Amino acid sequence: MSALIHFQVDRQLALIGLAHAPVNALGQRLRSELLQAIERAVADGEVRAIIVYGHGVPFGAGADINESGTLAPFASPSLGDVLLRMTQLNKPLIAAISGMALGGSLELALACGYRISEPGARFALPQINLGLIPGAGGTQRLPRLVGAAQALEMILYGRPVNARHALQAGLLDRLAQSPETLLAEASEWAHELLAAQAPAQPSPPWPDPASELPAHYFQQYRSANKHRWQGQPAPQQALAALEAACNLPLAEGLAFEAGLFRQLEGSSQSEALRHVHAAEGDLGTQPGVNLQTPIRPVHRVAIIGAGTMGGGIAMCFANAGIPVALLELKAEALDRGLRQIRTNYQTGVKRGKLTEAQLEQRMELLHGTLDYAEISDADLVIEAVFESLAIKQQVFRTLDEVCKPGAILASNTSTLDVDAIAAVTRRPQDVIGLHFFSPANVMRLLEVVRGQATAADTLATTLSIAARIGKIPVVSGVCFGFIGNRMLEPYSREAHRLLLEGATVAQIDKVLTDLGLAMGVLAMHDLAGIDVSYLIRESRREQIRQDPGYCKIADALYDLGHYGQKTASGFYHYQGREPVENPELTALAENIAWGLGITRRVISNQEIHDRCMFMLINEGIALLDEGIAQRSGDIDLVWINGYGFPAWRGGPLHYARTLGLDVVLEGIRHYRQSLGAYGQMWFQPAPLLERLVAAGKTRIEVI
After folding, report:
1. How far is residue 169's CA from residue 147's CA, in Å, rounded to a whole number?
2. Could you check whether the bond before residue 583 is cis, i.e. omega within 30 degrees of 0?
């Protein structure tokens, strides 16, 4: 019929194959040709039933992301119009699902009267992850098929389900034996339906989707999640659409859903989340690396250091089924590290995330050793020792001697010079930085630090292995702190300074959490350890000596032995992990401010926002200009996945675009003047920011 649709009639069945490679994205052209194929089948007197399937490709990955933010999703025929027409046919319509049915493609399947899939298929309505809701009937048809409670889980959280779960829930009617037999089994089923004179659209199993829900369920659910959803319209609208499915006739519910979808499709939240999605898709694009770049085989991994970080990294590889040698210098430290790994896995068993058998399988992949000779055959070695350049260099000298040629040597460092580490080896082309975030077995972000001599195949292999262990790998050049911690420095510096000028800990952190950050910067320092940030400052005293008040309050807490959560006292006091006000902090800030000649005053929430955010943004733009980061989206991914910046704001540099780059620049210039010597010292606009504003640009890119 066309390049996008494979149409044939076989034994009174119209077989409509969706053939839009690679994943049957439901763009306007495919929608139009699908509707034409359906009308052709309806008009053909020989055809008694219709099967829609993926012809040589998966059933479908949903809407065409390239149409988002344009009028294309609403161009005739819209997906909703196509699916509504499908529900009006007088011939049974079967969806035969291979591979996946995601988003709009699952909505297409829901509009069919009957559904069968191969055993390995996956199903999801993940539109919430793009700041949207299903807009082609998903919020109305799914509750009528599986009930409101199960529909809520799939729609509000975007959680995928496998074929067996879908069958059990009622989303599917049948499972085929295999992908190869799917179409044949769907055809035989169609003939069974015809023989039984089955209706084209059977009555829904849940005509009252809320029948199993307690009274006032939606009201209570909305109230319980109000704080978590603050500033995010999509989950609130998704719940409203599901409530409508329980209270309105289908036609009215579909119209209500369509109106909500239109509102969200043009929202700033959806634009931000689409930016994040696109940024993740760009991660594999790196200068000098392409599809022809060879990937080195990685079958065995070694970790140097069995502490908290080393153990967490080892778990990442064991979880992916990759054997790991864990090396320590002392038996006690090795035994302690292996015990902690087992304890971590046992926690997973208690929470139902692992079985005992899976725990033992993963522990069997871990091998402890005290001898460097036992890691000589490792394909990838990751050093995870104390954050000291001298110590790390000594480890790499040893690795250079014992590791086989072609082994990738990686340093898990958060701030140190990867080029200086590589320089002590005879193989700098094999050296790379891998900055895992703590806890390494939980956090998805991985900063991949590309040194000056790092070979293209070293980088390509590292990106490949990062994907195997489920990480989001963002490539950074070499500088102090790389992307994340270098941007953390000015952001954190302003929070510390604002304490001296008169703001309170709770006020600063509340401004940031109200913006959507997972936690305030001062609470974050308490969690990470005030002693940790103190040691980083100690390594940089020459660079920060110009400012006598630089993080002075944190230094004072360190001197008092108040390291944060680990000592139950820091910027906050802690009852367990629950923070409460530290009554000593204001007096401490007042004394330090008096000694430095800083006049304390009332600080507005707006000033806290502007000084912390503008300095964070400014540093990110500087990183882009210097080539440390390749794309603004890379920077946003680091801060979303490593530092709790809200994805629905798109990351700090996307947020800068919503604020207006001219507003950011004007604010930096304002504080440069109004804060006197301190402002002159620190509030220097990034040259790229000045160039972008002068050129009238809104997109953050190097010009």
Report:
1. 9
2. no
Asked if residue 116 lies in contact with residue 173, where contact means CB atoms within 8 angstroms, the answer is: yes
CB 326 within 8 A of CB 301: no
Helix locations, 627-660, DSSP H: 632-643, 652-659
Taking the C-alpha atoms of residue 625 and residue 686, their distance in angstroms, rounded to an integer, is 8
The CA distances from residue 20 to 72, 308, 450, in Å, are 17, 47, 37
Work out whether the CA dihedral 5, 9, 11, 14 comes out positive or negative. positive
**Domain boundaries 301-476, corresponding CATH code:** 3.40.50.720
Residue 529 in contact with residue 563, Cβ under 8 Å? Answer: yes
Parse the chain into domains and list their residue ranges: 5-266, 301-476, 484-694
Question: Secondary structure of 416-444 in the HEC alphabet?
Answer: CCHHHHHCCCCCHHHEEEEEECCCCCCCC
Tell me how far apart the alpha carbons of residues 329 and 692 are, in angstroms, rounded to a whole number.
52
In Å, how far are 301, 323, 435, 458 from 427, measured between CA atoms?
A: 18, 24, 20, 11
Q: What is the dihedral of CA 63, 64, 65, 68, to 10 degrees?
A: -80
| Bridge partner list, 449 | 433, 476
CA 501 to each of CA 470, 498, 588, 637, 646: distance values in angstroms, whole numbers, following the listed order: 43, 5, 12, 32, 28
Pairing label, strands 408-411, 380-383: parallel
Fold type of domain 484-694: N-(1-d-carboxylethyl)-l-norvaline Dehydrogenase; domain 2 (1.10.1040)
Residue 435 near residue 414 (C-beta atoms within 8 A): yes
242: confidence class by pLDDT, cuts 50, 70, 90? very high
Nearest-angstrom CA–CA distance, 569 and 559: 13
- Give the model confidence (pLDDT) of 519-576 as tens digits: 999 999 999 899 988 888 887 787 788 889 999 999 999 999 999 999 999 999 998 8
- Extract the tokens encoding 430: 């094999």
Sign of the four-CA dihedral 417, 423, 429, 431: negative
What tokens were used for 67?
Answer: 């149409």
Query: 282 φ, ψ to 5°?
Result: -85, -5
Kindly state the tokens that stand for 666. Answer: 């004007």
- Going by C-alpha positions, the residue among 148, 154, 150 that lies closest to residue 134 is 154
| H or E stretch at 358 | helix 356-364
* CATH architecture, domain defined by 5-266: Alpha-Beta Complex (3.90)
Task: For the chain, give the longest Cα–Cα distance.
Answer: 93
289-331 pLDDT, tens digit each: 998 999 999 999 999 999 999 999 999 999 999 999 999 999 9
Alpha-carbon gap, residue 521 to 139, rounded angstroms:
38
Find tokens 């807009």 and name the residue.
135
8 forms beta bridges with: 15
Q: Tell me what pLDDT residue 69 has.
A: 64
Residue 201 has which token pair? 């659209």
pLDDT of residue 136: 95
